[in-house]
Amino acid sequence: MSSIEDRIRAEIEGHPVVLFMKGTPQFPMCGFSSRAVQALKAAGAVQMHTVNVLEEPEIRANLPRYSDWPTFPQLFINGELIGGCDITVELSESGELARIVADAQKA
Questions:
Q1: Binding site: which residues?
Q2: Which site in 5, 40, 55, 83 is 20 to 30 Å from 30, CA atoms measured?
Q3: Which CATH superfamily is domain 3-106 in?
Q4: How many other β-carbons are positioned within 10 Å of the β-carbon of residue 83?
Q5: How do residues 37-96 score in pLDDT, each as one tens digit?
Q6: Binding positions for glutathione
Q7: Binding positions for [2Fe-2S] cluster (predicted)?
Q8: CA distances from 39 to 30, 55, 70, 71 (A)
């Protein structure tokens, strides 16, 4: 197991809600990351942990292999990959994301 995989795992397991994104919640650097952040905020994710993959080239290069998901952003809740922007927005629109986030923040 490489140290970058250990680091990715530590990020995912160390926080209930983790978004690997381009940029930051305040300054998203792509539309998909921006929409994912907006969906999470709308779902009440107050303790969202984000990792800016533009500043973390090793994570950017290795996370798609680790998660078996090719694109960014990538949302993990309670250690599980939820998906990217489209799935996050769909879950938000259905109300499911708010329930998942609330459960994660209680745990």
A1: 22, 30, 60, 72, 85-86
A2: 5
A3: Glutaredoxin (3.40.30.10)
A4: 18
A5: 999 999 999 889 999 999 999 999 999 999 999 999 999 999 999 999 999 999 999 999
A6: 22, 60, 72, 85-86
A7: 30
A8: 14, 23, 20, 17
